[in-house]
């Protein structure tokens, strides 16, 4: 049986009804709960195992039972480890019922059904006593309730409740403690995701668009910017301080956990420079004696490669030697103001946290006053994603658009811009045209762009159109242009919404861009495929039941192509780039018939086929292309460099396979212009099949 759900199609911008399975939300929640990449983390698994082994042996040597509580058991992996290591009793809890039921089947399949008691509850709802979930308090706790910020999943309250209610006073906790590290950095590359630079044309001294003052002193979005710091180019930042242990959390109960805290460190910078941001990461002590450590440090600060770094080996070459983790990344925190530091003068780095998050300040003059958690007060960071702010600051991209559009305009031009929050639209108004109309129907985007119009005194040249019925007439408009970008867009081709808007006008009106090409390439990802790859046998335990549940749910709820920032995920090309579809944006899209494409792409170098990357190239004129994909020429067998200010589309096949030049990728693509739907299907075949 099916149900119909109402959605906004990002390409057409219209409301549509989609037929869904009645349990669509259920399947989607299961698919989203997939944490296979965490279970693919062999180092994590081993260090949890070693921590459990040490704890159980310690209790047994002391003549005590080893009574284990596993909070948030997921697949039951840690509970099964405890059972294998000889724990006397094990109680596991899991609040998400579909995963809890899956864990029960996994535990039984692996032969531990009589050793592990599984409770379908949050740990904070567990009871202790004769008729309780636990007969008595546990003396060993094992749990993984951490995220990129360490405490973002409620670790502080979870551990505090466990110490107060569920654990004995001399309990062993795995992990026993966690430490947050902070490092002050200078990086214009990183800063571009947060602070808006003045927009100039061709690196000239003349500024086209100034940023409002309020945007220059805004900390940005309050949400953490989680990022794979090890993938930053080595020359893209300068460390101004050593990594600094900022916060220490004792999970054992020996020291009370604080839900709110402030730490001030006096630090001497190691070099001079302008502080733009704080990088953070954390490590865990997996045993009570601090002998087993798990580090989430980026490559330049990771303990496993420090000796090699001292031998001047570039850290890009060492990134493969530390564990890859998508579940525990690193994070960037932006400072509200640039601050110049020198090695001759100490600075004060202040860190704060509440129950779920961190924030930082540098040389805060009000030393006795607590800085409240930063929130965006300039609207820009609320209206725009970090990647969109990065696009605003991308000089090469901006110059390509400005050069192409400048060829089409004159003092009598009336331009219509179909793009959310386009500074380029404002720039064109500064370049000597008669009028620019900006189509802005998103309320936050509209509020943001009005702020820029006021700052740059453009009210007489720019008219903001906030609904389709207020668009200028066909006779008035001489040029339609766009970047294109829309707040509702997730995948690159969602920005084909520009085409649908432009098609409201006659084909005789010039358009920039005039052509859009969807392209793809077969990729051997180093790690990205693990977010969807099945586990099979994990650390000796059969987890195929979990694989079946997640993959069947994903097939019912997920699109075959998802959006990812591929610059963070190394991958080598197995084919040359290939064209999937080529659209003439001068045509009226609503008058086109259905497009079906079938193309074959040969594999040209040996490797493991585990992904296909898909992007969109915007052709501004015959000579100028702006790509949402690679930033350099692609060579088979070599790593691909991706645009850091867009997300690409990725298809991750359910099964990986070794391929050679005997293999060919078959691509099937369907586009229904009336419905605004695109469908991709891929099949790897071998000669003779």
Protein model, in words:
- There is one protein chain.
- The chain is an alpha+beta fold and 689 residues long.
- The protein is 21% helix and 31% strand.
- The strands form ten sheets. Strands 8, 11, 12, 13, 15, 16 and 17 form a seven-stranded antiparallel beta sheet that branches. Strands 25, 28, 29, 30, 33, 34 and 35 form a seven-stranded antiparallel beta sheet that branches. Strands 5-4-3-6-7 form a five-stranded parallel beta sheet.
- The mean pLDDT is 91.
Keywords:
alpha+beta; Rossmann fold; globular
| Name of the CATH architecture of the largest domain | Distorted Sandwich
Q: How many domains comprise the coordinates? A: 4
CATH topology of the largest domain: Hnrnp arginine n-methyltransferase1
State the low-pLDDT regions, or none: none
Structural shape: globular
Tally of strands: 38
Query: Percent of residues in beta strands?
Result: 25-35%
Helix content estimate: 10-25%
- Mean pLDDT over the residues: 91
Structural class: alpha+beta
CATH classification, class level of the largest domain:
Mainly Beta
Radius of gyration: 28 Å
**First-residue to last-residue Cα separation:** 37 Å
CATH level 4 superfamily of the largest domain: Hnrnp arginine n-methyltransferase1
């Amino acid at each position: 049986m099916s149900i119909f759900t109402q959605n906004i199609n990002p390409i057409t911008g219209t409301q549509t009804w989609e037929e869904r399975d009645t349990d669509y939300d259920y399947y989607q929640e299961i698919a989203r709960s997939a944490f296979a990449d965490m279970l693919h983390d062999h180092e994590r698994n081993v260090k949890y195992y070693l921590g459990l082994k040490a704890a159980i042996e310690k209790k047994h040597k002391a003549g005590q039972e080893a009574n284990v509580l596993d909070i948030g058991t997921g697949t039951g992996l840690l509970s099964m480890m405890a059972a294998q290591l000889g724990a006397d009793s094990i109680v596991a809890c899991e609040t998400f019922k579909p995963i809890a039921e899956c864990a029960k089947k996994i535990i039984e399949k692996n032969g531990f059904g009589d050793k592990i008691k599984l409770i379908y509850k949050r740990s904070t709802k567990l009871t202790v006593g004769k008729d309780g979930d636990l007969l008595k308090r546990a003396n060993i706790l094992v749990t993984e309730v951490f995220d990129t910020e360490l405490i973002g999943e409620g670790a502080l309250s979870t551990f505090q409740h466990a110490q107060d209610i569920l654990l004995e006073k001399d309990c062993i906790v795995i992990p026993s403690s966690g430490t947050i590290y902070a490092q002050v950095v200078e990086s214009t590359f990183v800063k571009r995701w947060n602070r808006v630079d003045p927009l100039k044309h061709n690196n000239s001294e003349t500024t086209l668009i100034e940023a409002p003052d309020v945007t220059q002193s805004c900390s940005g979005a309050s949400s953490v910017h989680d990022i794979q710091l090890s993938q930053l180019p080595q020359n893209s930042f300068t460390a101004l301080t050593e990594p600094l242990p900022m916060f220490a959390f004792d999970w054992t109960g020996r020291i009370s956990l604080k839900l709110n805290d402030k730490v001030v460190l006096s630090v001497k910078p190691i070099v001079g420079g302008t502080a733009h941001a704080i990088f953070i990461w954390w490590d865990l002590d997996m045993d009570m004696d601090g002998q087993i450590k798990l580090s989430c440090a980026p490559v330049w600060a990771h303990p496993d490669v420090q000796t090699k770094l001292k031998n001047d080996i570039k850290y890009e070459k060492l990134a493969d030697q530390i564990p890859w983790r998508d579940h525990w990344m690193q994070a960037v925190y932006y400072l509200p103001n640039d601050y110049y530091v020198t090695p001759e003068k100490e600075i004060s780095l202040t860190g704060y946290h509440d129950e779920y998050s961190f924030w930082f300040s540098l040389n805060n003059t009000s030393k006795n006053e607590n800085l409240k958690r930063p929130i965006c007060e300039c609207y820009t960071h609320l209206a725009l994603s970090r990647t969109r702010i990065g696009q605003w600051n991308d000089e090469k991209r901006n110059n390509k658009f400005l050069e192409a559009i400048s060829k089409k305009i004159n003092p009598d031009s009336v331009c219509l811009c179909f793009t959310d929050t386009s500074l380029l639209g404002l720039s064109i108004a500064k370049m000597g045209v008669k009028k620019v109309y900006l189509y802005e129907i998103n309320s936050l985007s509209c509020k943001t762009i009005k702020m820029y119009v006021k700052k740059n005194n453009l009210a007489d040249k720019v008219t903001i159109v906030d609904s389709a019925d207020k668009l200028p007439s066909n006779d008035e408009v001489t040029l339609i242009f766009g970047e294109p970008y829309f707040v509702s867009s997730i995948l690159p081709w969602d920005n084909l919404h520009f085409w649908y808007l432009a098609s409201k006008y006659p084909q005789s009106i010039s358009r920039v861009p005039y052509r859009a090409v969807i392209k793809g390439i077969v990729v051997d990802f180093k790690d990205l495929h693990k977010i969807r790859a099945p586990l099979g046998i994990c650390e000796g335990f059969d987890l195929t039941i979990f694989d079946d549940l997640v993959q069947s749910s994903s097939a019912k709820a997920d699109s075959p192509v998802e959006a990812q920032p591929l610059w963070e995920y190394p991958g080598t090309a197995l084919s040359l780039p290939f064209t999937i579809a080529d659209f003439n944006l001068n045509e009226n899209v609503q008058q086109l018939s259905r497009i079906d494409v079938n193309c074959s792409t040969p594999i040209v170098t040996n490797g493991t086929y585990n992904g296909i990357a898909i992007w969109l190239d915007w052709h501004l004129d015959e000579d100028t292309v702006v790509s949402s994909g690679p930033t350099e020429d692609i060579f088979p067998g070599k790593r691909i460099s991706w645009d850091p200010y867009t997300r690409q589309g990725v298809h991750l096949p359910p099964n990986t396979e070794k391929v050679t030049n005997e293999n060919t990728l078959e691509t099937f693509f369907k586009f229904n212009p009336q419905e605004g739907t695109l469908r991709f299907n891929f099949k790897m075949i071998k000669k003779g099949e």
